[in-house]
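queue> pop job 88
queue> type: inverse folding (structure -> sequence)
queue> payload:
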């Protein structure tokens, strides 16, 4: 999960990583007010979930509050690599003498966290990584040992940072690593780490990605998630915790297990139908989950029929049948529904469905043929 620079900086502040003073603004007038409060030269920065904002015109310097307002009016609403800018960060501008790079991420191939330091940070770090990889000092951490003082000294030395910055750089790295670990980040990056005219180090940019698989225990951070889905139904499904992908056809597909659902999509397609979605109710699906799944599929008004394909293992067919019947009752289902149940408690499930107007199918093939005939696509 991506978070914005201003949010990453708030986290940095909690770990005592020095950052410039500043505040976020949603309108040019708010940006002006922040600049007035700061009362100095400021930088106005687009807050969007993409990198390279500087090069794309999303970062502007302003001498005073009036200029800050003008810069904000240019940046707000701007389209940056496909994303619309809705907020800007207005900060005290840094007096930049040199730009360094600090980053920590997961190296999957090595199964370790890797710490990276470079004395040539800034907007061209990606190019440096390709053309002069030796300018980036790297260290893979043993998870049982973590980041030690001598690691930090070695990194600063190998990166060629000026000796007078080594001690401060060490503090940044320790704080960054502690932050990275405690918030379950998959990336924590300061680029540039600025060496200022007064000889201090300052994190003028901040990038943090959080491991999605850790969001269940990072509740506060999970709230920072913004709907990045372009599709409103996918966004709603996500909110409901339903595994759903929207497609452009008119036959809703529900099954248990990703493989079974994908196969069902293929078979429906082969029979001449056009699937409207992928939806996996998962293992051990309860009646309530089945009902929620049907409701989710019906959010797409293109859906003219639904096929449900369940292989009962852990999932019990009678439980699924109850969910389907519940959904038909409570949702006032107006489209045909073909159901194929096989496996655990198949007979009980089929018996329950036999008393309804639902269309039973004996096999996946049979289900696909029936729904295609009913929908007529
Ligand atoms: P990114 O392009 O999205 O990575 O955004 P950054 O925050 O890294 O800013 C990009 C570049 O803008 C930096 O490398 C600096 O050269 C410049 N910049 C950003 N903030 C300041 C500032 O406070 N003062 C000055 N002089 N330049 C800045
Ligand atoms: Mn940057």
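queue> result:
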């Amino acid at each position: 999960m991506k978070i914005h620079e201003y949010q990453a900086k708030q986290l940095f502040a909690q770990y005592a990583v020095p950052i410039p003073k500043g505040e976020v603004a949603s309108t040019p007038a708010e940006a002006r007010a922040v600049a007035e409060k700061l009362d100095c030269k400021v930088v106005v920065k687009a807050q969007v979930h993409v990198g390279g904002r500087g090069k794309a015109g999303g970062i502007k310097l302003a001498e005073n509050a009036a200029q800050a307002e003008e810069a904000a009016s240019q940046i707000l609403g701007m389209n940056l690599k496909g994303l619309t800018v809705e907020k800007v960060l207005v900060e005290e501008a840094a007096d930049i003498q040199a730009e360094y790079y600090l980053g920590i991420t997961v190296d999957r191939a090595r199964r370790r966290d890797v710490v990276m330091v470079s004395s040539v940070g800034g907007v061209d770090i990606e190019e440096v990584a390709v053309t002069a990889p030796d300018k980036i000092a790297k260290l893979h951490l043993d998870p049982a040992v973590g980041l030690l003082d001598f690691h930090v000294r070695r990194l600063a030395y190998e990166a060629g940072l000026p000796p007078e910055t080594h001690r401060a750089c060490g503090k940044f790295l320790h704080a960054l690593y502690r932050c990275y670990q405690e918030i379950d980040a998959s990336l924590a990056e300061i680029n540039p780490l600025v060496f200022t005219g007064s000889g201090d180090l300052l994190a003028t940019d901040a990038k943090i990605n959080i491991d999605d698989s850790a969001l269940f225990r990072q509740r506060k951070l999970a709230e920072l998630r913004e709907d990045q889905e372009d599709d409103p139904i996918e966004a709603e499904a996500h909110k409901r915790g339903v595994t759903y992908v929207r497609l452009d056809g008119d036959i809703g597909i529900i099954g248990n297990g990703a493989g079974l659902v994908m196969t069902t999509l293929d078979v429906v397609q082969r029979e001449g139908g056009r699937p409207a979605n992928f939806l996996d109710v998962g293992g051990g699906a309860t009646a309530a989950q089945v009902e929620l799944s049907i409701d989710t599929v019906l959010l797409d008004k293109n859906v003219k029929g639904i096929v449900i394909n369940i292989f009962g293992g852990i999932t019990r067919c009678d439980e699924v049948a109850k969910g389907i019947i519940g959904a038909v009752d409570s949702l006032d289902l107006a489209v045909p529904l073909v159901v194929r149940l096989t496996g655990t408690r198949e007979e009980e499930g089929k018996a329950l469905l036999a008393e309804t107007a639902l269309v039973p199918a004996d096999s996946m093939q049979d289900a696909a043929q029936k729904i295609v005939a009913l929908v007529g696509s």
